[in-house]
Amino acid sequence: MEKKCPFLSTINRGVLDFDHEKLCSVTLRNEHVYCCLVCGTNFQGRGKGSIAYCHALEMSHHMFINLHTSRIYCLPDNYEVKEHSLDDIKQYLQPKFDKKLISILDKNCKTYDGSEYIPGYIGLYNFGKTDALNVVILLLSRIIPLRDFFLYFPIYDSENFQKISKVPVDKLMFSIIEIVCKIFSPYNFKGMASPFVLANTIERKSNSLFPVSTNTEKQSNKTSQDTQFVDPMALLSWIIHYIKKKLSKIKLGYQRCFYQDKMSKSKNIIASCIEGQVLNCTKINGIEPTSLNLSYESMKSVHGSTVNSFISLSLNIPLPSVLNPSLDSRIPQIAIFDLLQNKFLENSSAFQKIWLLPCYLIVHFKRFSMESFGLEKNPTIISFPIKNLDLLPYVHPDNLHANPNTKYDLIANIAHKGDTKSGVFTIQMYHSSRNEWYEIENLKVEQILPQALLLTTSYIQLYKQSDLH
């Protein structure tokens, strides 16, 4: 018969915070770390004479959880406590998902203090300059097959993990999956999450290309050398390529479990979701190769014609002086269709067309540029359809059969508020079940009208094909 613990009532869920690195508060070591469930402080060990053991004796705090195994113990007696009433704490520490939990993600959940939140639409802490990381992670979590891959991934189950992976779990992959699980967890005591561990891991893995704070000289890319600016597009591209590289170690058969019907079964889950192809072709004596009845294989070898993969469509925004020659006080505006037309505009010697559309389309508006006096932001407002963005005019006619659906619906929009030094990145995300839009600016979450999207200075957009669930 299992021993009934008399100290369950001393547990204080209000002080628990599992978002920081799992280090002992005394030794700063990460082996065998336990969190005191009474005061929320981390200590090492649980054996006789250990720091956690001494804390239990000195403070009469008896309940501890192992931060690596989520097993709960009573000290100093050192016996494991198995109570279903503690499952919410274990889920808060290590969120684990099954079909039942996935099915209730659309429902409101409650924090420890009774406040309501929607899983997947929670605020993220911003420390230093992590607003760019916050919006990037939230955007990636809108890609449903990738989200489900993360939520089901057995990062806390070494036995099942070994069945699907050729190598031990990567530290950065672990941190990405963990933060996505916390964002969608229905057992979030605070209704918010901190990307602290992920941000520090990215800083180390990228050799400080993406700093946590802004007091470093290294920057996110060549066009953002301002010490107050981390480019979300550079960060998004870096994370996507990193995930793609690590997915090569995950069995493709496991990844296919999360594909939708129309996705390529021969690619990893990232490529199947967001990777498209564009045809770059040189004209022959001013004539398009297809007009000369050349096959696709022949066309690829003519004058350097190539098909290249892409993970985002980057669109140039004209300078405000070009759109508004009078230089009056009005904010210049341009339609996304004009930007697409400029990108795929044919000239006398070459042309570019979309060859294969992705299931999820990332659009990048090139809004920031490095000028002689520093980083500059183009304030132009871009108009775009929220539903049914049709890319048919930009798809090569010879490959229309491979692109039966050319229409896209907007599901996420990253925008920038303010100037390049003191501004902040925000994200607007669509909730399909509720038919509502929400804006998240770090910890602030609020419902907005769809029309408000058209007033933002959009930087990155995520669309999904209209026939996807």
TrEMBL record:
The keyword Protease does not apply. Keywords: Hydrolase, Metal-binding, Zinc, Zinc-finger. One of its GO terms (biological process) is protein deubiquitination. GO terms for molecular function: cysteine-type deubiquitinase activity; zinc ion binding. Residues 3-100 form the UBP-type domain. The keyword Protein biosynthesis does not apply. This is Ubiquitin carboxyl-terminal hydrolase family protein. It comes from Cryptosporidium andersoni.
